[in-house]
Amino acid sequence: MTESPKPLGMSDFFALEAGEYLERLDGMLAKGDNPSADEIVRLARALRGSALMANQHAIARTAAGLEALARAVREGRRAWDPQTQQIALRGVDDLKIFVRRAGTWTDADTAKAEALAQQLEQLAGRPSAQIRAVEALGLDAGARAFVAREGAAIAGTLERAAQALRADPLGHDPLQHVMRALQPLRGLAALNDLPPLPDLLEGIERAIGELSRSGLEPPASVGELFQVAGSAIARAAREVAERGRPDPEGADFRQFAGLLVKFMESEPDAVSIGSLYYSDSGPHIVSRGVPAARPSTLGKLELVSHGEHLRQAADSLERAPSATQRELRAHTLGTTFRALANAGGGVLADRVAQFAMAGRDAVASGIAVNSPAAFAAELRRAGDVLARSGTGDEEALATELDALTAALRTIQPGAAPAPAPRRAPAPKPAAPPVAAPVVPVGKATPTPTPTPTQRADQTIPETPDLVGSWAAYQRLAVGGIGPASLAELLAGAERAPVAPAPRSPGPSGTPSGLPASASSAVDVRALLYRGERALRRAEELRATAKQVSGDALRELVEEVCDLVALAFEPGP
Question: How would you class 301 by CB atoms within 10 Å of its CB: exposed for 0-12, middle for 13-18, buried for 19 or more?
């Protein structure tokens, strides 16, 4: 009785696969003049990916050096001469020895592999700007190989799903297979740096969600939609493997975007109920139906959540690197606008529904794509209004939404974003009277003429940013606080002067018994961010953090952490 053969392990598979790649490389290099540099790059990259999968990092490092040398020849940075040929052949021979010693690897082998890799990279010279840009994104050969492998798997699954949907349009099993195939690539950290892959995957998920949710027979074009999606992903993944970046304006991606927009905007044809009966004497319709009740009013928590989503969508729309991606991202708002347009009664919910219908019209007419900055600005302002719906007055918020809806309907193609409307100041609690500016006793004038600075303050809102801070400073400077001085600010922080207790105002508006300047004394600690002001400042830094990196980003993170601690302290 013969024993069953021992199954092959990972190292055995690596030895077989790597040996095949090296034999093909050896045969190509031995031919002499003008071998295919593209084929050498492809085989060296495949060898490196195989070594990484087998956890042979030293061999992968040497294969990377050989790949760099072949790329230098392909890009014209190094000539293919007898010296280069001998170096490449010697590198392949050493790699064969490394593969045979993979099972008994030592530290000496690691040192030899590292030395060979450095020699090959030194001969290859400085890589091209395109390769340097790819490496700056953190996409090494292993990551590009992963994208290529998973992209090919997704493309194959989409092709099978397209064929299955043509045969059985109501079958949902192929859709679940596609969702599972998307998961590995969706988990890649660098995916957002590879447009249009994120938009492709999100568009496929949206189409699957719409098919699963409706329960109706999909249109005949759904099979073509998934087939084109497979071709677009296969091309994008192949471009990532070869060049490090896909083309965000590729023909397949544009075709997929057009089909997806048509699919998402398509609705089942409405037919008369009477047409569903036989053409006989009846009875058919015996009583009038009752309209469906409107859904309940959206709660404050839902409105705040929708507001945050609108702000994120505005940022995403402005950052879209191509018109095709901008169109796809604009149409992703359809679900949000549909939910807001179906909101129930209530003064604020009605205004939200009107804004949502105006937003849907802007997307359908192409305004969101042709005027993305203006559309995103109104979208962001509406998100700010909804974010304040948890604590704000509904009547005031509804009035603000009316203005935003009117502004949204007046956007023209190519229009620039309109300036932010000035928000009415919230009522403040009763506080000790402070005169600003203060007029000394005996020098009061009946109706003082406003200065240019005062007139400017009437038009510049005191928002929590640099412009608003300057407006507040100008207003206080009119009251006689003197010129700005860092020494005075530091001294005031140590003294922490507190405004005196209020007394009955004198004839000039100044509390009696006090000098005119005493009523403007303020606790310096009141100028710090606390409570709600700290939260608003943290929200501003969050938007800034999206545009910086490195040391600047770390400084912003530290400042946000300080603001979070100050947010728990009561405001001044």
Answer: exposed
What is the rounded distance in angstroms from the CA atom of residue 562 to the CA atom of residue 252?
48
19, 89, 255, 377, 488 from 100: Cα distances, Å: 9, 17, 49, 63, 76
Buried b / exposed e along 197-221 (16+ C-beta atoms within 10 A): bbbbbbbbebbbebbeeeeeebeee
CB 63, CB 20: distance < 8 Å: no
- 511 φ/ψ angles, rounded to the nearest 5 degrees: -55, 135
Q: How far apart are CA 230 and CA 238, in angstroms?
A: 12
Nearest to 524 by CA among 568, 563, 476, 559: 476
For the chain, first and last CA: distance in Å?
90
The DSSP element (H or E) to which 69 belongs, if any, is helix 57-74
- Residue reference for tokens 């050493």: 94
CB 471 within 8 A of CB 462: yes
Are the beta carbons of 238 and 148 closer than 8 angstroms? yes
CA torsion sign for 404, 407, 413, 417 is negative
**pLDDT single digits (tens) 118-177:** 888 888 875 545 555 554 444 666 677 788 888 889 999 999 999 988 888 888 888 889
Residue whose C-alpha is closest to residue 51's, from 91, 104, 90, 11:
11
Q: Which letter does DSSP use for residue 511 in this model?
A: B
- Tokens standing for residue 476: 């206080």
| DSSP code at position 192 | G
Q: pLDDT band for position 491 (50/70/90)?
A: low
Cis preceding linkage at 440, omega within 30? no
Strand partners, 511: 505
Rg (CA), the chain: 34
Three-state DSSP class for residue 345: coil
CB-based burial label for 79 (10 Å; 0-12, 13-18, 19+): exposed
Give the CA dihedral 470, 471, 475, 478, nearest 10 degrees. 60
For residues 295-315, average pLDDT: 78
Token pair listed for 420: 């932010």
238's tokens: 């192949």
Q: What is the mean pLDDT of residues 531-543?
A: 78
Q: Which residues pair with 505 in a beta bridge?
A: 511
Nearest-angstrom CA–CA distance, 500 and 517: 11
